[in-house]
Amino acid sequence: MNQARVLGVRVDCLDKEAALERIGQLVEAGGRHLVATVNPEFVMRAHVDSEFARVLESADLCLADGSGVVWAARRQGCTLREPVTGVDLIPPLAALCSRRRYRLFLLGAAPGVALDLAWRLRAAHPDLDVAAHSGSPDPSSDDQTVALINQHKPHVLLVAYGHPSQELWIARMGDRLGATVAMGVGGSFDYLTGRVARAPAWMRRAGLEWLFRLIRQPWRIKRMAVLPLYALRVLRTG
Questions:
Q1: pLDDT digits (tens, 9 = 90+) for 199-229
Q2: Phi/psi class of residue 237: alpha, beta or left (left: φ > 0; alpha: ψ in -120 to 50)?
Q3: For residue 151, how many other CB atoms are within 10 A of its CB?
Q4: Is the separation of the CB atoms in 95 and 70 below 8 Å?
Q5: What is the per-residue pLDDT for 1?
Q6: pTM of the predicted model, to two decimals?
């Protein structure tokens, strides 16, 4: 099975390796492409935000970011071993960009974070052409941000504004962006630079990364309050 519909939101049944291959194909195809990393919060948001739902539907690739989405997709026959998260995808994606000479741009997070990650990725891959800017989803900074991105002419743009801001911003910029592939990656930059600790591997394998995040960041409880309702709705779909 190539796709599933999780409460109406499309999820592509691709593991990390297949996702990387598909992103490479999108770069080679040219044009403008959106990659979304779908978690349960995305799904629930799409039910109350028609514009966000439209943007997700328009995406060229919707990856299963979160054990809850993997669980729901498996119930429909998707053969997914594990989530494809932004934080897991970025290092091998940087390696792919280095090998194929794709230019990479990191946008978002707190000041200095994207630059730090760019330095780390360049240290791991000396041939990687990568630039970074903290930016903001505020429309008042769009002109400056777009100018910086287009000056670099990236093949791949990673946007860490958090959802739904990052996906809505990419959609709003449309053809103004010079990037071939744009992907929202949430808080991935903070995890990859060590500013925020990630759950131990055993918790990730058990699908408990959400619990680790909640313990470390209690403010997430408001966002995660939708999870029981999400699970109930998935179960009701049969």
A1: 677 767 766 666 656 666 665 556 667 778 8
A2: alpha
A3: 11
A4: no
A5: 55
A6: 0.91
